[in-house]
Amino acid sequence: MGKFTYDSTLVVDFDDRVLAHLQIVIGAKLRRNESFYFSWRDDTAVGDGRSTVWLHPAISIVYKYHGGRAPAINRSWIEDLMSTANSSAGLRIVPEPADARRLDGDDAHAGH
C-alpha cells in the first residue's frame, strides 16, 4: 500500500496502482491551477465512512509508493478519473475499466 499525504497532516493508504493513477489526474488538475474536491471510501479500520478534501495547488502533496516499480497506466481509467475530477462532486475513485490502452509506468510519468 502506498501513502497519499496532503498538507503534511492527512495520510491515507491507497494501493500503488490506484495511487499512480491518482497522481496523474491530480497533477494534471493542479498544473492548471484548478482546485477541486477529492473523495474516497475510508478503510474499515478507520470507520468505513467517506472522506473528502479540497485540493489546492498551494498545498503540498506527497505520493509514497510501497513498491519500487511504477505500474502500467490505463489511459481509459485516467480518462474516467479525470471525468469525475471535472465534475461538481470532484475526483472519486471509480473501478478500473478493462482496456488494452496502457502505458508503461515509467513512460507515463516521463516529463511530469
Secondary structure layout:
Layout: E1 2-6, E2 10-14, H1 16-31, E3 36-41, E4 50-55, E5 61-64, E6 73-74, H2 75-85, E7 91-92, E8 102-103, H3 105-108
Parallel strand pairs: 3-7
Antiparallel strand pairs: 1-2, 1-5, 3-4, 6-8
Would you identify the regions where 5 or more consecutive residues have pLDDT less than 50? none
Radius of gyration: 14 Å
Largest sheet: 3 strands, antiparallel
Q: What's the assembly state of these chains? A: single chain
Any idea how many domains? 1
- End-to-end separation: 22 Å
Tell me the β content. Answer: 25-35%
Structural class: alpha+beta
Shape, principal axes of CA atoms: globular
Strand order of the main beta sheet, please?
Answer: 2-1-5
Structure description:
With 112 residues, this protein is of the alpha+beta class. The chain has one domain (2-108). It has helices spanning 16-31, 75-85, 105-108; strands at residues 2-6, 10-14, 36-41, 50-55, 61-64, 73-74, 91-92, 102-103. A three-stranded antiparallel β-sheet has the order 2-1-5. The protein has a three-stranded mixed β-sheet with strand order 4-3-7. A hairpin with a 3-residue loop joins strand 1 (2-6) and strand 2. Helix 1 (16-31) packs across helix 2 (75-85).
Characteristic terms for this protein:
112 residues; three-stranded antiparallel β-sheet; globular; alpha+beta; three-stranded mixed β-sheet
In short:
The chain has helices spanning 16-31, 75-85, 105-108, and strands spanning 2-6, 10-14, 36-41, 50-55, 61-64, 73-74, 91-92, 102-103. With 112 residues, the chain is α+β, with helices and mostly antiparallel strands. Strands 2-1-5 form a 3-stranded antiparallel β-sheet.
